[in-house]
Amino acid sequence: xxxxxxxxxxxxxxxxxxxxxxxxxxxxxxxxxxxxxxxxxxxxxxxxxxxxxxxxxxxxxxxxxxxxxxxxxxxxxxxxxxxxxxxxxxxxxxxxxxxxxxxxxxxxxxxxxxxxxxxxxxxxxxxxxxxxxxxxxxxxxxxxxxxxxxxxxxxxxxxxxxxxxxxxxxxxxxxxxxxxxxxxxxxxxxxxxxxxxxxxxxxxxxxxxxxxxxxxxxxxxxxxxxxxxxxxxxxxxxxxxxxxxxxxxxxxxxxxxxxxxxxxxxxxxxx
Amino acid sequence: xxxxxxxxxxxxxxxxxxxxxxxxxxxxxxxxxxxxxxxxxxxxxxxxxxxxxxxxxxxxxxxxxxxxxxxxxxxxxxxxxxxxxxxxxxxxxxxxxxxxxxxxxxxxxxxxxxxxxxxxxxxxxxxxxxxxxxxxxxxxxxxxxxxxxxxxxxxxxxxxxxxxxxxxxxxxxxxxxxxxxxxxxxxxxxxxxxxxxxxxxxxxxxxxxxxxxxxxxxxxxxxxxxxxxxxxxxxxxxxxxxxxxxxxxxxxxxxxxxxxxxxxxxxxxxxxxxxxxxxxxxxxxxxxxxxxxxxxxxxxxxxxxxxxxxxxx
Amino acid sequence: xxxxxxxxxxxxxxxxxxxxxxxxxxxxxxxxxxxxxxxxxxxxxxxxxxxxxxxxxxxxxxxxxxxxxxxxxxxxxxxxxxxxxxxxxxxxxxxxxxxxxxxxxxxxxxxxxxxxxxxxxxxxxxxxxxxxxxxxxxxxxxxxxxxxxxxxxxxxxxxxxxxxxxxxxxxxxxxxxxxxxxxxxxxxxxxxxxxxxxxxxxxxxxxxxxxxxxxxxxxxxxxxxxxxxxxxxxxxxxxxxxxxxxxxxxxxxxxxxxxxxxxxxxxxxxxxxxxxxxxxxxxxxxxxxxxxxxxxxxxxxxxxxxxxxxxxxxxxxxxxxxxxxxxxxxxxxxxxxxxxxxxxxxxxxxxxxxxxxxxxxxxxxxxxxxxxxxxxxxxxxxxxxxxxxxxxxxxxxxxxxxxxxxxxxxxxxxxxxxxxxxxxxxxxx
Lengths: 271, 313, 429
What we know:
The complex is a heterotrimer. Helix content of chain A is 68%, strand content 0%. Chain A is mainly alpha-helical.
């Protein structure tokens, strides 16, 4: 007996539902009154939906500024990581240079110290560069991360080396190989790194708190935290703001899916 | 065996003349370093220098407020006698041992399920991605409600099927596992999108060949797909371990190290020392001990990976 | 190829330059042209943010030589990290809102301005007009390190409808612990998921300070008079903790995990009584609950505990000090503070505010608030002002939590905590 739909739906639909519970909860809370939003147990079926909360949230804090600052921060770090991590990962994957293994471990080691410990010295360095209270101060420490280097190295190493060797014989430079052969074959990996880095910058709270002083320079999460008091949080507005901040990330994810549907043409290469 | 047989088949015989080889080799080193230079500079300035600074901090009695003074290795000596630190290590190890395997294996299964061309697959993938981008604060609030012993949804569901009510985050024996469940749920999407990207790179002709040979779907999966996902798996195991050993945010927004210290993990203990007890020098020492441990574990994993992981080249 | 990399790097740097205004220069032109700009860091949200911005604007308009720049520095723990970073960078803000519990540690910073002289030289300031609990918290080793920014205390808030349903007489100012326990048990209905009382049980200071109130009510003390030994493991301390144990065993207490869900439960009628402060009043007043406020039930006395916070001044030069002092004097003056209270519902920080003619507007706008103000007279003791207090708090928090969770007896828990605290106090500050 054939089902009218793929049997995979029977597995994926419940899983997706479980995954979406918090998002649905956030949307519901964002449409409630302040009293309802503060209720415990939560009010899950409000009688009226207050879509006006979104406009109120947008106007109660400088949302436009927050979005702009976050956009600059996130796009810059994505661009920086994609570029610098690709260059470095290619070298680690394909070029045998002196000290390669040791250097790789040293870079990887920078992922092993919790940020709370290094936030003050990082602040001091950025301060010395004159970038306090400035989007540049947000961006600089996050332009390149060992995470991206590690991830792209793994992906580059799975590519068959024959293509690159053929190009080298043809006289293509290393840089040319990277940009003309390796990167085009690595679009899913690059898209993944882009999504992840975008998400990290978009959701960053602690570093912006330390480096930014004025509300006009604050990115999203820092800006949203002004709606969240120690004792007096306006939950409905906070959730409206949070939902609004999630939309761009979801849009970028959906957009990046185009590189995941298209399968890479490997046919013709014999292992 | 002649000398030429040692060169790999298909490679040009340009390595015949010593002078050119030497120059090639020299340019290899230069090329390598040139490629990594921007990354190295950025990471050196913004990560390595701060890490060095905190090494100095760990050698001081410093509350980050009054002028500090150096105390040599005193902080480290105190750490060896610190029972609370030992507990924190235990909690962290238990958490890591649960988190890493479950999330990596679970993500693999989920990624395979999501690597289909069925209708709505993009939305399913988006659904798996959403917990990842939900802020830790929101996730914490939701789980605190779901797991509330009296009013929570989970206990309600348990009562419907006749299972006993649990205390979850209020039970010192259960809290850490609840945190593990919460973080696995939150991070699954991360591992899934990495696996999805890796699955894209699996040559379809290999899969077709296996099918023609009569291999079952499961056998194909086990002997073709899984080995080819080796590099991604190694990456995820290393990354998940590094992350799990540094767990902090989810503890901060839910249990705050409790109940009765049962969810105090190393980084949370560090945070307490530095920012609640004003003992930042001691906190830095904790960070360094953690750093060495993570480094050793990672090196071990990479070493195992080098021997077991198959790269196509 | 190197050229490409160089171009990209310089592009990144250029991006930084156009990324926003120039780096913060709020501590700018000094006394040269007679104008000073001072930065004030605070963690206010919603109503309080609007209030501080309104007041700062009023100050700026009426004081042409000073500009106050109010900046959001994060709330609770996060504010501390930001302030510590600023201190490390050598440029702390001119004024910062800091929790009272941080005062002993913050006071070790040489840039913190000691206010004794400024206060002594200014007869109009009237330091003694501030409530005793505030003055205690702002004074570290004889040095006054902050101007009070906020004061509160714990009072009993109850649901009149639930009391009527249970046939109980409403709480009076003469209520004893046994009256309270009796009511808590009668208000508990486990099948209906209703609790008589709520207690924050996350082992944080929120868990601890409620216990201190009970300890003091039983006639106990936290530390010995010389501050060198624990004194809470006395019969009074055990008695107080036994009340918690007994009520918890009978499921009369909703154990809040720190997320303050107790408030939502109270407003939806699931909890009969709360020990809480003015910060919850706005939510309770806007709900459907018919509520009442009363002083805490007592044993030997009806003492309560107060949690004042401070405005701390950092020394960024004579001109900035002068401007900061002028602003703080103005902000905490009786008439301005009354404006603040009217806007936010926070308690007046000066006793003389209660004597102002407009004060009646405050008590009528926030029904029940007058009880908290009166209750300030019951806040006679304060927590020990020592840099070791956070560690002491952690030890007690664990003790109280373990009793509430039924994992140990009051005697065991307190004697273990006393051992830890004595060890902590043995280390010289």
